[in-house]
Automatic annotation (TrEMBL), chains A, B:
PROSITE patterns reported for this sequence: GST_CTER, GST_NTER
Pfam families: GST_C (PF00043), GST_N_2 (PF13409)
InterPro entries per record: Glutathione-S-Trfase_C-like, Glutathione-S-Trfase_C_sf, Glutathione_S-Trfase, Glutathione_S-Trfase_N, GST_C, Thioredoxin-like_sf
SUPFAM superfamilies tied to this protein: GST C-terminal domain-like, Thioredoxin-like
Protein name from the UniProt record: Glutathione S-transferase
Domain called GST C-terminal: residue spans: 85-216
GST N-terminal domain location: 1-80
Length: 223, 223
């Protein structure tokens, strides 16, 4: 049986949960805390970060969200999530990288640390400047999602791809924190609404972290 | 002709320069400044970040270091740089991600910003706390490189791979800044010495940025 070591609000973990569901692969979840990974998790991934995928069947545990996604896609090529040719795959991977890195450092990692992890490690009060910067930065990214979805059916082209899953995974964490200003970004909202409506997304909308309630619209498909 | 839009001290740009050279692909360099990308570069990559690869022959410009590397590897599979099977590829990609993200946010992006980019955008004096944290963090990473290279011929296994190129690209930037404490990490130094000796590495050792001289050992193969 495939096991995914994850944390509820880890963006990369949510990305892999979406991908496994879209590929129709059954899996168990095992919880790990990014702020206190523990020895047994560190033996699976010395970085201490989820996600880690244990595919079973003698395959060693795999770490890094993008590496795990490439592995899953290679072993389960259908449905196509990585593009039909090398140029299309480069565009999917560019946008996967955009959210996995640029959006992470500019928006989602900051908000997650300031609004959640900081409390878990008792690292003092949130830094208002960091939060304010992330809240400014997200507007640029939501505008870019709107720009892409005006020109394409999905973010990387005509087919839904890993780019949509990575973007939606990051946005879903920001949305859980009540930090996505959807009202001002209607195209991005429409794209996110389509993502939210997919059966693969349902489990994410049921996630709840103790002491950190999402806004009322979080699991509303007509938000 | 293939053109690589790069910046001298951009870690991802150096990674792609190494990869193109290892694959035996000729290319021109075009300079872009990450702190002031300009309209024409932004039209190639809205993130504003090098590297961007323009492969020519009607192929659109490609962005994101990992996406570019996958494209190059798919079009030029020899020599093998991504592993011989899906599990080996997952390990290569895990370590590529380790340096492209974890090492970047914990060490190299911080040092590059504080010691170089901050001056270019006149953003005030370096933050001593950020520099001190990065100098502490690098020890963990050099220790991990040593751990890996005691157990394997190269970082991801028996063959040199994209993992070595990504790690060496990041380390080379840190080394240019005089921030790599090689004396305390002999295994990591030996691995880096092997990387430095490769013909693909020579052009990187000749890079010089105005107003920011590297330490004397930077281009010394017997450092």
């Amino acid at each position: 049986m495939t096991t995914l070591y994850h944390y509820w609000l880890s963006q990369g973990s949510r990305f892999i949960r979406l991908l496994l569901a879209e590929k129709g692969i059954g899996f168990d979840l095992a919880l790990t805390k990014p702020w206190a990974p523990g020895e047994s998790f560190l033996s699976l991934n010395p970085s201490g970060w989820p996600p880690v995928l244990a595919p079973g069947g003698g395959v060693p545990a795999l770490a890094d969200a993008r590496a795990i996604a490439e592995y899953i896609d290679e072993r389960h090529p259908q449905p196509v999530m990585l593009g039909q040719n090398a140029v299309a795959r480069a565009e999917v991977r560019r946008l996967v990288g955009w959210f996995d890195y640029k959006f992470a450092v500019e928006v989602s990692d900051t908000l997650l640390f300031e609004r959640h992890y900081r409390g878990m490690i008792r690292a003092g009060a949130p830094d208002p400047t960091a939060i304010r910067t992330a809240r400014t930065n997200i507007r640029f990214h939501l505008d870019y999602i709107g720009h892409l979805s005006e020109r394409r059916r999905w973010l990387a082209g005509d087919e839904m791809s890993l780019a949509d899953l990575m973007a939606a995974a990051h946005l879903s964490v920001v949305d859980y924190l009540g930090e996505a200003p959807w009202d001002e970004f209607q195209e991005a909202r429409q794209w996110y609404s389509r993502m939210k409506s997919r059966p693969s997304f349902r489990p994410l909308l049921a996630d709840r972290v103790a002491g950190l309630a999402p806004p009322a619209h979080y699991d509303d498909l007509d938000f």
